[in-house]
Write a structure and sequence with these properties.
Length: about 300
């Protein structure tokens, strides 16, 4: 017998209301994505660093930025891990969101790579962009695609863009030759290379791919000490990863969905600890989104970034 969605919700509500089964609400419900840059958040939860800071945190897993943004907009989560681009689009659409810290910005180790499909690996980028470039609008993947094409002096008129929001599907279509090129995050970029793809450019050392901690502005105004405690726990987790990388590997393999072929070998990045978002990076992303018509007017730094939450 199949049980409908509303019946399941009713059953869940019943158990929540049974005497002795009520659970206290967490201090923070925080949205995550299964990506390597989010590793300090996962480690902070598993190693008890949030509890050390005196806060209870419930991590809510999402498979895509779109799912996460919908949950944030509807008030299901107080904050989330994400990129500048999606935060800025929400902010420009009057969703009160503030970035409180940068978790990671690629330095020596790449986190995103521009990969040619195996069937095109012997060709020049200019010759294959008409065969389909996978994008996910208004995300860091979209931004990096535009940046990499610009660095190769390829105009948008030469490119056939193919919207593919699901990243595993993007990898599958790339390796099957259904698109000719795509920006992929690690570890899928490495996996694509193992399947015959060719990396032609990446973000290492470019300072283009900041990933951030962001919270609802109303939540930051009412709970500044809780957010400071959250950021301190993430800073503690970053230090732990740097000192004990192999001890963090099992958490990374599970929470960041590392492919089986890479679970023992994929290099664990060093995390510099939370930092403030540079003004120039906000300006560059804002100008890009405004130019492509995704936001009506540029977002100012103080509209998007909240200072005073770093350890």
């Amino acid at each position: 017998m199949r049980i409908g969605k509303w019946a399941l919700l009713a059953i869940a509500s019943f158990f929540l209301l049974v005497p002795g089964r009520a659970y206290p609400a967490p201090d923070i419900r925080f949205g995550t994505l299964p990506v390597i840059q989010c590793l300090p958040v996962f480690v902070a939860a598993e190693k008890g660093f949030f509890k050390e800071q005196g806060i209870s945190v419930e991590l809510v897993a999402f498979n895509s930025a779109l799912e996460k943004d919908v949950a944030f907009t509807s008030g299901q989560i107080a904050g989330y891990f994400g990129d500048i681009q999606t935060c800025m689009v929400l902010n420009a659409n009057r969703i009160p969101i503030k970035i409180v810290a940068v978790v990671y910005n690629s330095t020596s180790q790449r986190m995103f790579a521009f990969i040619l499909a195996p069937k095109y690996s012997g060709k020049e980028l200019n010759d294959v962009v008409g065969g389909g470039v996978a994008v996910s609008s208004n995300t860091i993947l979209d931004f990096l695609t535009a940046k990499f094409l610009s660095l190769r002096n390829i105009s948008p008129s030469q490119v056939k863009m193919v919207e593919i929001k699901n990243i595993p599907v993007r990898l599958q279509m790339l390796t099957a030759g259904q698109v000719s090129v795509a920006v992929l995050p690690e570890p899928l970029a490495t996996l694509a290379e193992m399947k015959g793809g060719k990396s032609i450019m990446d973000d290492a050392g470019r300072g283009l791919s900041a990933t951030v901690l962001a919270f609802h502005d109303g939540f930051t105004n009412k709970n500044p000490e809780k957010i400071k405690a959250f950021v301190r726990a993430v800073a503690r987790a970053s230090e732990y990863i740097n000192k004990n990388p192999e001890e963090a590997r099992s958490i990374m393999n599970r929470e960041c969905r590392i492919p089986d072929q890479l679970k023992l070998s994929f290099p664990i990045p060093r995390f510099p600890g939370p930092s403030i978002l540079p003004r120039e990076q906000v300006r560059e992303v804002s100008q890009w989104l405004h130019k492509k018509g995704s936001i009506k007017k540029e977002v100012l730094y103080n509209q998007l970034v909240a200072d005073g939450y770093l350890p």
